Amino acid sequence: MISGFFYGLLAVILVSLVSLVGLFTFSIRRESLNKFIFVVVAFAAGSLLATAFFDLIPEGFGSTGSYSFVVFGILFFYLIESLIHWHHGHEKVCEDCIAPVAYLNLLGDGLHNFLDGVVIIAAFLSDFSSGIVVTISVILHEIPQEIGDFGVLLHSGLSRRKALFFNFLSSLSAIVGGIVAFIFYSSFERIIPYVLLIAAGGFIYIATADLFPELHKERSKKKILMQGIGVILGILLIALVLKAA
């Protein structure tokens, strides 16, 4: 059991490092990055919806038989964003303020990463080969999502360094999830489906309430077409990765 946890923890750390995918943007000038960041945001919206509907909801519903916690997740993230807006409304207006969607995205991604850590450790505790398969599946799934998450943070007003740092910080919740799974596995296993559904509700809220409205601000026909392609690519890539896994 200890050896399974050790290998599982190494796998979780490897998965967390995927969040550093944003490093490739450091070789791109900010002006050039701004020209295609809207496509990354569109890709993020598509990947969030695909993750929610093709991955999290089926897994959670299969165990609970209810979608009610998806609704709870949507309401929970709505209330969180409302509190952030209220807090910002009581501060001095500034040009460098970070959009609330950045905090929501970090929260939703943190929950998702936490569960990834739980699933990976659980798989390694069950069987080494199962742990390897699950780890590969999670990495393939995380790459497109982390690209989208990084794009959302940049679009929300964070610098590249801060976006990379906070995205990596959020990914470390996978390690926390792995440790929790090891210590409380027998009792924690029962609540995983509900947390999956709440995370799914959060992803749906972020995509529809925050990212899509941002995309609708664009008036250029060419950019609108590129946004549509970005959303579709985000959906297709997640769907293909899940099917391959």
Strand content of the residues, in percent?
A: under 5%
Distance between the termini: 25 Å
Number of domains: 1
Which segments are poorly predicted (pLDDT under 50) over 5 or more consecutive residues? none
Oligomer: single chain
Q: Number of helix segments?
A: 9
Query: Tell me, what's the shape?
Result: globular
Structural class: mainly alpha
Largest sheet: none
Query: Mean pLDDT, rounded to whole units?
Result: 81
Q: Indicate the percent of residues in helices.
A: over 70%
Query: How many DSSP E strands?
Result: 0
| SSE arrangement, N to C | HHHHHHHHH
Q: For the CA atoms, what is the radius of gyration?
A: 18 Å
What are the key terms here?
single chain; 245 residues; mainly alpha; 84% helix
